[in-house]
Specification:
Blueprint (H helix, E strand, L loop, with lengths): L6 H9 L2 H14 L4 H12 L3 H9 L4 H6 L13 E2 L2 E2 L6 H17 L4 H4 L4
Antiparallel strand pairs: 1-2
Length: 123
């Protein structure tokens, strides 16, 4: 598949359940000495979901498309830049895929020990 034709890739991401990926996020950050609470802080910053809402969405096994469609995306999310999974985040045209990669990038930065104020794009 070429990088210009990502429709199959986008569809696969949109239909993937957030609940199936969430434990991997937790494992990734905890393995690097960060906490589940910090992960939730990052997710809440990006999506507006508090812990109760997040747990509800996990229980409902919502897919990433629905997860991001009902999110209140942070107005500074566009400041998330860089390469994740071989794609430059700011060049991804599909909204759901780009938002999913935003989350991947934030989790990655958390696991790499980046300061929280940098991760949360605070001046």
């Amino acid at each position: 598949m070429s990088k210009s034709d990502t429709s199959h890739h986008d569809e696969r991401i949109a239909n993937m359940s957030f609940a199936s990926v969430y434990p991997h996020y937790v494992t990734k950050v905890e393995k690097k000495g960060r906490t589940k609470e910090e992960l939730h802080q990052v997710i809440e910053w990006l999506t507006g979901y508090d812990e109760n809402k997040l747990n509800e969405l996990i229980e409902q096994k919502v897919n990433f498309k629905d997860f991001f469609e009902s999110a209140n995306l942070n107005e500074n999310a566009h400041l998330i830049k860089g390469v994740i999974c071989g794609y430059r985040v700011e060049e991804i045209t599909n909204d759901t895929t780009r938002q999913c990669r935003y989350l991947d990038k934030l989790v990655d930065e958390l696991a790499k020990g980046r300061k929280m104020e940098k991760i949360l794009r605070q001046p």
